[in-house]
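FIELD: query
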Amino acid sequence: MKTALLKTIIHEESVKYFDRVHRSDWKQFLYMGRNEEWYQFEETKDLDGIACPVLFIVGEGNKDYLENEVERLNREKDII
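FIELD: result
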């Protein structure tokens, strides 16, 4: 199979996968990520001194996401 055709097939399968697991317009984040100024990384890069509750939202209706994050939270010592 030619490389260009293989890339197209992989791309189409990837798009189908992300369309299936995300209810939102996930593609917008790809475009936003091209602009280095879209998020305030400079202001949020060091949060060590902040002690406040954080609402952690995960899943978007996807059981696999939720299970993976629950597993990760159980491993992390700083998250209660």
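FIELD: remark
The first helix runs from residue 3 to 21.
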